[in-house]
Amino acid sequence: MIKGRRVLAVSLARGGSKSIPKKNIALICGRPLISYTIDAARQSQYIDDFIVSTDDEEIAAVASKLGADVPFRRPPELSTDTASSAGALCHAVLYMEQLRQQKYDIIVELMVTNPLKTSEQIDTSVEMLHARQADSVIAVTQVWDQHPARIKKIEDGRILDFCIHEPREMRRQDLTPSAYVRCGSIYTLNRDYLLATRNRYGSDKSYALIIPEDESVNIDSVTDFQIAELRIARRLASHKLRAVDGYPSSDVPSNQSP
Questions:
Q1: Handedness of CA 77, 80, 84, 88 (dihedral sign)
Q2: Rounded Cα gap, residues 27 and 170, in angstroms
Q3: Mapped to the 3 state alphabet, what secondary structure does the chain carry?
Q4: What tens digit of pLDDT does each residue of 23-41 get?
Q5: For position 239, what pLDDT does the model report?
Q6: Domain spans of the chain?
Q7: Regarding the domain delimited by 7-139+182-251, which CATH topology (the fold level of the hierarchy) does it fall under?
Q8: Average model confidence (pLDDT) for the chain?
């Protein structure tokens, strides 16, 4: 708990993924994808309650077996391809407040699609929201080759600037201003802002939590899945090397099992 403010964390894990069927429980480095988010949530020092919102019985069973609370099945109208994440979050918040007979102050959406998130990142986002009296704190990562100046359009076969002129011979790391993209990891929200606007970000009181590129992936395709698996494997290998070199156990990344 952070200074008397109650924190509810929610992972949205519907069963209708098209690109990777049952994506949320597909095995990655030998473990269900959702397990990495569950671990990070359980290790947070600020989360009071963590639930998984799903419409799928198999996902619910796996999440429950891994120690997550799955108190309801999400209604069908909130589980379609076109249903908004904000709507599903509002449903989860109101359900839990009625169940617990108390109001939450901070809502943290932990997206299953980034298994690289850490409990430290979660807690930093909560601290930022509280300290800045923000509407939202959103995890972002810097983009390089995808910088707007490097994005082009084609007209009559010609390559043209899409929206920003790209200076000649400029290195991508020198392009300004720096560009960032939401990285499908953590959305930390003021509860009243979420319920009043049904938005997760976009106000003038939305702040950025910058996530390093190698800790950011948003799994939406087989290629994304493979990238995430490589990064997890590299993290595990790095952990083993540190253990061999005599680093203390506290150096283990918080969302990985020892």
A1: positive
A2: 41
A3: CECCECEEEEEECCCCCCCCCCHHHCEECCEEHHHHHHHHHHCCCCCCEEEEEECCHHHHHHHHHCCCECCCECCHHHCCCCCCHHHHHHHHHHHHHHHHCCCCCEEEEECCCCCCCCHHHHHHHHHHHHHHCCCEEEEEEEECCCCHHHCEEEECCEEEECCCCCCCCCCHHHCCCCEEEEEEEEEEEEHHHHHHHCCCCCCCCEEEEECCHHHCCCCCCHHHHHHHHHHHHHHHHHHHHHHHCCCCHHHCCCCCCC
A4: 999 999 999 999 999 999 9
A5: 66
A6: 7-139+182-251
A7: Spore Coat Polysaccharide Biosynthesis Protein SpsA; Chain A (3.90.550)
A8: 88
pLDDT digits (tens, 9 = 90+) for 202-211: 899 999 999 9
Residues sharing a CB contact under 8 Å with residue 52, sequence separation 6 or more, in sequence order: 10, 11, 13, 34, 38, 59, 60, 63, 68, 69, 70
CA distances (Å), origin 81, targets 25, 122, 198: 18, 27, 18
What type of residue is 246?
G
Q: Which amino acid is at 88?
A: A
